[in-house]
Amino acid sequence: MALQLVKLPDVERFTLQGTNTYLIGRGNQRLLIDTGEGRPAWSQTLESILTEEKATITSALITHWHHDHVNGIQDLKKLCPEVRVYKHDPDEGQFPIEEKDIFHVEGATLEAIYSPGHTQDHMSFWLKEENSLFTGDNVLGQGTSAFEELGPYLSSLETLRAKGSVRGYPGHGPVIENPGSKITEYLKHRQEREDEILRLLRSRNSRENAILWSPKDLAQEIYPKIPEEVMLPAINGIVQVLMKLENEGRVSYHSERGLYSASKTKHAL
Prior knowledge:
By secondary structure, this protein is of the alpha/beta class.
């Protein structure tokens, strides 16, 4: 994706290779959310903007540890040597972010929201003045997101939806108008997938009357035309659903065979 800069009210969005970073506020002190992949074009554009606006970045807030969000930190420090870098699980020389931490510059007040799921350390941010969310990779501008652990991810989506925000600034993709509606779509999609897996596990006339299923069996049943090269991510997503259902007592894991079955206790879908 080509480098582009989209000017928004008190928020400037930089997109480079699919990762959004955000410069926030007015005046000579700004906040930055994420630092991208560490591409030279990003730091050059940021330097140009800061010079033009006679501004510096006092705090950089990192949504999570993935390389496409943190690899620009060193370039940022060269541009703004006094910047403080905040991350929920901070690396050496960084500072921690906790739930409800407040970050303020002229024109912008951000409240931190701990929102694990995509990663264990994931943070989102609420922009008070605009009632907007910086959703990181939990909610994307296009498509659905991956997650490390489904249960916390769903809880985080509920938390973000409850903010009732009018706009969402994602880690990837275009700005989201009405993020609550987008999050409802995510939750509906995840519930449909969960229900489908449970129906398969409970079915006695599928897969030659087998009642024990491997994650790969389920993936092949749910995605019969999926290309082999993306089969592994599909299996991993199904494993996350199975782990959630096991924690809820609705699925049993037979560790000696690596297979799953519906629990004997009856639960309504």
